[in-house]
Design brief:
Largest sheet: 2 strands, antiparallel
Shape: globular
Number of strands: 2
Low-confidence stretches: 1-15, 339-373
Strand content: under 5%
Helix content: 40-55%
Distance between the termini: 89 Å
Number of helices: 13
Mean pLDDT: 85
Structural class: mainly alpha
Number of domains: 2
Length: about 375
């Protein structure tokens, strides 16, 4: 039996691959026009870690006890008392005068509740899973007990190393676009307060898991106590407060509200003053900008408002804005400012302003003229 091999049709052979490639490229463009695909990698990392944690039963650590311990740090009685004290200080010595019920404050209350209820279990799950992966994959990183090292020295070292890791992760959040998409929510606040420390995307904690490494390495020699973690959290919260306060000579060591406000400024570089508690990392990297009289009351937020914010419409729509902000990291890369996630709020603003002719509104650009320097309502 003989067989005949015929050459494939040359026109079809040359046309098919390009058409296939065109269809594939077209699909990719279609998907990328609706969603920022790199952001899904952060979701994937979180899902993988959670799966590992569940399968290993959190490395034998009590999940419920860990949640309780973290809640003590985040919203425990001592922490709440400290936050209330800071809120009082904000009223007595504000950097910028704000209504006690300013929109930004109300929005950050939502994030506080979100953190205390849903984010705490997520952070615990991610942390326990990360520790399990680290110790099982690299068992040699866990150092043995050093009898000659006093416990206080080990704890102090972990504390400083943890702060350095926080600084490193923070820098990455400003330099890597994929991570910035999750971090920009924190920078979108135009009404800074002590509660702004809670204004974070739940998945941002994936990038901060490296702060666990010092504790994992030295776990046999000591651990940072809950009391110290509460103090650390208080320092980080206070630097976000709307307070005109520096620490004098200690400003060269610790981050003050006036120091950190520069990091949140709406105009100028924001990849400066990245420190959580200590300024030394900023100084060593040439990123320290110390406060002056001109920087104390500078405006904060994101230039151009690329993300939905509660101040953008005539009336605050806190829950719809919250949803838009949480979906913000996944919006298309080329989405224009104040569209996509913020489109409905802006349209509502414009429609309501057109119906108003009262004082305080400019009939030329349909924006409030006297409410604040960004032309939008505060309350």
């Amino acid at each position: 039996m003989s067989s005949v091999i015929t050459a494939p049709n040359s026109s079809m052979d040359t046309a098919s691959p390009p058409q296939s490639r065109v269809r594939t490229t077209s699909r990719r463009r279609s998907v990328s026009s609706r969603i920022y695909l790199p952001a899904l990698s952060v979701v994937a990392v979180a899902v993988v870690l959670l799966a590992i944690g569940l399968s290993s039963r959190w490395g034998g650590t009590s999940f419920a006890a860990s949640i309780t311990n973290l809640r003590v740090v985040i919203v425990g009685p001592v922490t709440v008392a400290i936050l209330v004290l800071f809120l009082v200080i904000e009223r007595l010595r504000p950097a910028q005068r704000r209504s006690f019920f300013a929109r930004g404050y109300r929005q950050d209350v939502l994030y506080t509740v979100l953190n205390a209820t849903l984010v705490v279990p997520l952070v615990v799950a991610l942390s326990l899973s990360f520790a399990e992966v680290a110790t099982k994959t690299f068992p040699w990183i866990v150092l043995p007990r050093f009898g000659f090292l006093p416990r206080w020295f080990v704890i102090a070292f972990i504390f400083v190393a943890m702060d350095a890791c926080n600084w490193t992760a923070h820098l990455a959040n400003h330099r890597v676009r994929m991570l910035w998409r999750f971090h920009e929510l924190h920078h979108s606040q135009e009404d800074m307060s002590v509660l702004t420390v809670f204004r974070t995307h739940p998945l941002i904690h994936v990038s901060y898991l490296i702060t666990l490494i010092p504790g994992i390495i030295l776990v046999a020699n000591g651990a940072v106590t809950t009391t110290l973690l509460v103090v650390y959290a208080a320092v980080v919260a206070f630097e976000h407060s709307n307070t005109n306060l520096s620490f004098g000579p200690l400003n060269r060591i610790f981050c003050s509200p006036n120091y950190h406000r520069i990091h949140h400024r709406v105009e100028g570089r924001q990849d400066v003053n990245l420190g959580f508690a200590l300024t030394i990392w900023d100084q060593l990297s040439g990123r320290a900008v110390f406060p002056t009289k001109e920087t104390i009351r500078i405006d904060t937020g994101l230039p151009g408002r690329p993300l939905a914010v509660e101040q953008s419409a005539l009336r605050a729509r806190h829950f719809s804005v919250l949803v838009a902000q949480l979906l913000g990291p996944f919006r298309p890369l080329d989405a224009p400012p104040e569209t996509e996630t913020d489109r409905l709020a802006v349209l509502s603003f414009d429609n309501e302003v057109r119906d108003r002719t009262g004082a305080g509104f400019d009939t030329v650009d349909s924006r409030p003229t006297t409410l604040n320097n960004r032309g939008t309502p505060r309350g």
